[in-house]
């Protein structure tokens, strides 16, 4: 995506050593894109293997899920996929931080839910579903979190108009005559 | 000395009153009582609510104008102060609380967001509560200072003194309505209540809106 992938192959002599977590994931899932930004490790995993990768990382000590978020890369310069899911992990024993990303595409952007791994993912994935329409298979209760239940759109998608499609004015009017 | 003076018989054209008696119309008296005992319903959703609290606190002392009794039950209030932006998930709540308030009742739209949506021109924010509920006073500002809210309450008091009556003439259209219950009167757009309550579902299907 936006960062170069040249750190994963034929690393230069002065490149930092590959993180053992990245090495472990690469051993399980094959070579993947990864980088270090301001001392924090980032990696991109294939969406279909995201659950087993995150399960592996949880076994390696990342016991805390900080956030699940998403970015819509529609018409983004150089983008090859539409949606980028972001998992922010942390280890409470070693204080390590890790950013794991996975890309999904239209139609039916789908990824496996990580609620079986971290209960904290429950509402986070509900919010991503509400705002971006990413479907999380295996989620126990995938309802809207922020918008009203009757809302039909996913408003943080880039092809949704900023001022909405009139939903904010679709209410009955109470006048002095009937209140 | 006035009390010792003989009072004319009733029916006499020259009726004299003691000096400690004031004659007024009953409407004026009722309006005077109403305007000096406004009980606000604080519908505070954003930073305007902080200024609203400051208005009620010691320095600005809303009690000087008889409006210091903030109640959190709409059944006990007659002045709704909407302080802050209202999003589309909150608007049905706002409308229901407004309908739960007893007559006579008034509404102050406090701040730019409640009045127009303010800078929040996005998909979820209602662009002015006066699109959906009646508003008596608008207070500009982002957020308004407590003095501005106090000025709005003073102006509202003038309006109540001028307009309200105890005969209920201005509420005639409302009194002619057959059903007064808020739940039946207001068809909620989100049908959440109907889905959860089959009795309400039947009532909504059977209740025809009265024609004015």
Q: What's the helical proportion of residues of chain A? A: 10-25%
Most strands sheet of chain A = 5 strands, mixed
Proportion of helical residues of chain B = 25-40%
Domain tally of chain A: 1
Number of helices of chain A: 3
The secondary-structure class of chain A comes to alpha/beta
State the CATH architecture of the largest domain in chain B: 3-Layer(aba) Sandwich
- In terms of DSSP E residues, the strand content of chain B is 5-15%
Count the E strands of chain B. Answer: 4
The low-pLDDT segments of chain B are 175-185, 208-212
Average pLDDT level of chain A: 86
CATH topology of the largest domain in chain B: Rossmann fold
Strand order of the largest sheet of chain A: 1-2-5-4-3
Strand content of chain A: 15-25%
CATH topology of chain A, what is it called?
Beta Polymerase, domain 2
Radius of gyration of chain B: 22 Å
Task: Give the ordered list of helices and strands of chain B.
Answer: HEHEHEHEHHHHH
Our measurement of the CA-to-CA distance between the termini of chain B, rounded to an integer number of angstroms, reads 57 Å
The count of β-strands of chain A is 7
Question: Any overview of this molecule?
Answer:
The complex is a heterodimer of chains A (179) and B (212). By secondary structure, chain A is α/β, with parallel strands linked by helices. Chain A has a single domain (30-163), classed as NADH:ubiquinone oxidoreductase Nqo5 subunit (Beta Polymerase, domain 2, 2-Layer Sandwich). Chain A contains three helices and seven strands; from the N terminus they run αββαββββαβ. Mean pLDDT of chain A is 86; it is low at 4-9. Chain B is an alpha/beta fold and 212 residues long. Chain B is built from nine helices and four strands, in the order H-E-H-E-H-E-H-E-H-H-H-H-H. Chain B has helices at 26-35, 48-56, 91-100, 111-116, 146-163, 172-175, 182-185, 192-196, 198-206, and strands spanning 40-44, 79-83, 106-110, 137-139. Chain B has a four-stranded parallel β-sheet. In chain B, helix 1 (26-35) packs antiparallel against helix 5 and helix 2 (48-56) crosses helix 5 (146-163). Chain A binds chain B through residues 147-150, 155, 160-165, 167-179, and chain B through 87-89, 91-92, 95, 98-99, 121-127, 131-134, 173-174, 177, 185-187, 189-192, 212.
């Amino acid at each position: 995506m936006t960062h170069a992938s040249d750190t994963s192959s034929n690393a230069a002599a002065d490149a930092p050593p590959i993180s053992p977590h990245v090495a472990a994931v690469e051993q399980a899932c094959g070579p993947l894109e990864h980088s270090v930004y301001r001392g924090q490790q980032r990696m991109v995993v294939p969406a279909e293997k995201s659950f087993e990768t995150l399960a592996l990382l949880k076994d390696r000590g990342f016991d805390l899920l900080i956030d699940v978020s998403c970015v819509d890369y529609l018409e983004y310069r150089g983008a090859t996929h539409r949606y980028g899911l972001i998992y922010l992990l942390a280890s409470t024993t070693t204080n390590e931080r890790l950013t794991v990303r996975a890309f999904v595409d239209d139609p039916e952007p789908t990824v496996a839910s990580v609620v079986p791994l971290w209960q904290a993912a429950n509402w986070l994935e509900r919010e991503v579903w509400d705002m971006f329409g990413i479907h999380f298979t295996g989620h126990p209760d995938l309802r809207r979190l922020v918008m009203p239940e009757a809302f039909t759109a996913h408003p943080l998608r880039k092809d949704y108009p900023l001022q909405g499609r009139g939903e904010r004015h679709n209410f009955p009017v109470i006048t002095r005559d009937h209140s | 000395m006035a009390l010792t003076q003989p009072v004319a018989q009733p029916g006499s054209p020259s009726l004299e009153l003691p000096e400690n008696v004031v004659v007024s119309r009953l409407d004026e008296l009722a309006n005077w009582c109403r305007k000096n005992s406004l009980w606000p319903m604080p519908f505070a959703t954003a930073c305007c609510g902080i200024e609203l609290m400051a208005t009620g606190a010691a320095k600005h002392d809303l009690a000087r104008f008889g409006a210091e009794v903030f109640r959190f039950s709409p059944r006990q209030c007659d002045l709704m102060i909407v302080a802050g932006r209202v999003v589309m998930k909150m608007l049905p709540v706002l409308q229901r609380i407004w309908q739960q308030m007893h007559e006579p009742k008034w509404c102050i739209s406090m701040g730019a967001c409640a009045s127009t949506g303010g800078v929040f021109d996005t998909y979820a924010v209602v662009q002015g509560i006066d699109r959906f509920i009646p508003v008596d006073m608008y207070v500009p500002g982002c957020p308004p200072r407590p003095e501005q809210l106090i000025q709005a309450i003073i102006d509202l008091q003038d309006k109540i003194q001028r307009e309200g009556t105890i005969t209920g003439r201005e509420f005639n259209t409302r009194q002619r309505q057959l059903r007064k219950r808020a739940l039946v009167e207001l068809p909620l757009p989100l049908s959440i209540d109907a889905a959860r309550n089959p009795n309400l579902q039947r009532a909504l299907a059977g209740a025809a809106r009265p024609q004015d």
